[in-house]
Amino acid sequence: MQILASPFFGVSGDFQSIATTTVGVGGTPTITFSSIPSTFKHLQIRYMARTDRAQLQDYLLLRFNSDTGSNYSYHKLYGDGSAAASGAATSQTSIESAITAGATATASIFGAGSIDILDYADTNKYKTTRTLDGLDRNGSGFVTLTSGNWRSASAVSTITITSYGVANFVQYSSFALYGIKG
Q1: Are 50 and 109 in contact (CB under 8 A)?
Q2: DSSP bridge partners of 16
Q3: What gap in Å lies between CA 57 and CA 162, rounded to an integer?
Q4: What's the CA gap between 5 and 17, in Å, rounded?
Q5: Alpha carbon of 129 to those of 43, 79, 83, 112: distances in Å?
Q6: Cα distance between residue 148 and residue 3, in whole Å
Q7: What distance in Å separates the CA atoms of residue 1 and residue 15, rounded to the nearest whole number?
Q8: Rounded to an integer, what distance in angstroms lies between the CA atom of residue 121 and that of residue 127?
Q9: Architecture of domain 2-180
Q10: Domains of the chain: which residue ranges?
Q11: What is the pLDDT of the chain when averaged over all its residues?
Q12: Terminal CA-to-CA distance of the chain, rounded, Å?
């Protein structure tokens, strides 16, 4: 399937579906996209997710090519309409990339967003991610803008998504991977 899209933070071009995963009954702790073709300029993950972590919110962690080394970092801005804050971390074993709803969020509330992985196949530079996402935190909105970095020149061929709370993604959580032509 091909989707024509308007620019999103400077990313434009044809979006082509690579893979989609929807979580079934019983949930799953890990979402993996593997054997990613190197024929696109960028990648984008669109998600709608909720975890069974006993918190109002949880976070999505990204790891590339099964690399568990401490060579990931991220910066984030977040707010709820009345206050804003920021955070950052370096030398991490994954990118804290996105926010999603946890088990104590209002029933049936899911976090949603999109994660861009820029120049994922370029072997001459480190990989950069950017995420725009949000969720309803029991009546108040919450949005984040996150940038991440994987300090490797390797092309991204596998993406693994887990939750910060080492929780399961619950039934109906959905993750779609798209390739973006340059």
Answers
A1: yes
A2: 2, 179
A3: 14
A4: 12
A5: 9, 20, 25, 16
A6: 26
A7: 9
A8: 9
A9: Sandwich (2.60)
A10: 2-180
A11: 91
A12: 17
Count other C-beta atoms under 10 Å from residue 154's C-beta: 14
Residue 145, beta-bridge partner list:
77, 132
What is residue 169's DSSP assignment? B
Residue 182: count of CB within 10 angstroms of its CB: 10
Q: What is the largest CA-CA distance in the chain?
A: 45
Q: How many residues does the chain have?
A: 182
Is the distance from CB of 13 to CB of 182 less than 8 angstroms?
Answer: yes
* DSSP-assigned letter for residue 28: B
Task: Give the pLDDT confidence score for residue 11 in this predicted structure.
Answer: 53
Which residues of the chain fall below pLDDT 70?
1-13
Determine the residue type at 79. G
- Assign 12 to helix, strand or coil: strand
Residue 13 pLDDT: 65
Angle at 147 between CA 142 and CA 150, to 5 degrees: 140
Model confidence pLDDT, tens digit, residues 122-145: 999 999 999 999 998 777 888 999
